[in-house]
Amino acid sequence: MYTAYTTLTTFLRVAWTITVKDLRIWLRHPTNIAATVLPPLAFLLVQALGAVAVGRSPVALVTQDQGQQGRQMAQIFHAADVFRITDASAEQAQVLYNNLDVVAIITIPADFTQRIQQHNATPVLVRVNNLNLDFTNDIRRSVPDVITQFYDAQGSASPIKISEREHDLRQHDIELFEYNVIPTLVLLLTIGGLITSGLSAAREWETRTVKEILMSPATNLSIIAGKVLAGFITTFGLGLLVIALGYILGWTRPEGVYWLSTLLVVALIALFGAGLGVMLGALIQRIQAVNAVAINVALYLFFLSGGISVLAFEPVWLQNIGAFIPLTYGNHALQMSVFYNSFDLLGRDVAILASSAVVAISLGALAMRRGLLN
After folding, report:
1. 15: nearest Cα among 240, 288, 278
2. Which of left, alpha, beta for 141 (phi over 0: left; psi -120 to 50: alpha)?
């Protein structure tokens, strides 16, 4: 009993000593921190700009009819929440259109109310610049939807009987930018684990300190545990910081017990990244090479797991690849917990992430052990 207790105590002390050493080295190298944080920040910026550009189409609304139906139609366009509307005269709208400040001009004609009251065909004029199919299709879909809402608002007085009832599958509407925060967080966790653990492992060979480790009484298992733990602590800490910042800014707001599932998934992704990092560091054994490979590996995993879109809407071949990427399940679990307060398929996601983390740590331990013995 005493021997087992002493062995365990020694193991924990050695592992913690190595962890503290690696953390201090990581903090003394701002370039390592920058390499961890800057790629996800760059993607977050690109996604923010993309969300602003494609989230709501910029249009000029020309309301020539000031009658009851004309004003009502204009209000419905404003309330539709699918346009960035600039109210303008016909001349002003043309200038905006020519300068590419708006993608379309929507005109409510002067006789709109009169035609409605007479039950005549009542056009809403739409002029679209089809320079981009995404913008064009948004306008083509959205304008008929607004017209449908207009007839629905007329009730029994409407010549076209329409009744709309919306039943949302999810409790909340998530903005495009907010939706993209979760994959970016997963990318940060992956890069953090790969770089922190990978560089700390590679540094032992590049600085020749690996010989000192071999001559010490530390066991291979305690060395590997210390490396993985250092990567996990830094990565998990960065994840907590991002979640806290997102909570303050209103981007990520898990509630109640869903905080626990959120933190659990973040921890598992951090462990997965740390295990892969140790493996890369032990195999490559060069700091600069590890840095480059780690970022590229993280980016490929990010894209293949649906990092820039909804994977379910991607081509089948990409969905099939994504099914074998652990980060796919991390994205899903975090989206359910953070956005929708749901445990949907949480057991499956956690099981896959946990087993992937175990495999990654085992591969890292094997690579590290072989590197130490060679």
Report:
1. 278
2. alpha
Cα(170)–Cα(222) distance, rounded to whole angstroms? Answer: 46
What count of other Cβ atoms lies within 10 Å of the Cβ of residue 176?
A: 14
Within a 10 A sphere around the Cβ of 68, how many other Cβ atoms? Answer: 12
Residue 342: CB atoms within 10 Å: 16
In angstroms, the CA 15 to CA 21 distance is 10
Reported as a single tens digit per residue, the pLDDT across 130-165 is: 877 777 888 888 888 888 888 888 777 777 777 767
Contact (CB, 8 A) for 188 and 40: yes
* Whole-structure pTM value: 0.79
DSSP states of 33-87? HHHHHHHHHHHHHHHHHHHHHHHSEEEEEEE---SHHHHHHHHHHHHTSSEEEEE
Inter-residue contact 317 to 327 (CB < 8 Å)? no
Residue carrying the six token digits 């910026």: 45
pLDDT tens-digit map of 51-109 = 666 667 889 999 999 888 889 999 999 888 788 899 999 999 999 999 988 989 999 99
Q: Which domains does the chain have, with CATH numbers?
A: 14-49+173-373 (no CATH), 56-157 (3.40.1710.10)
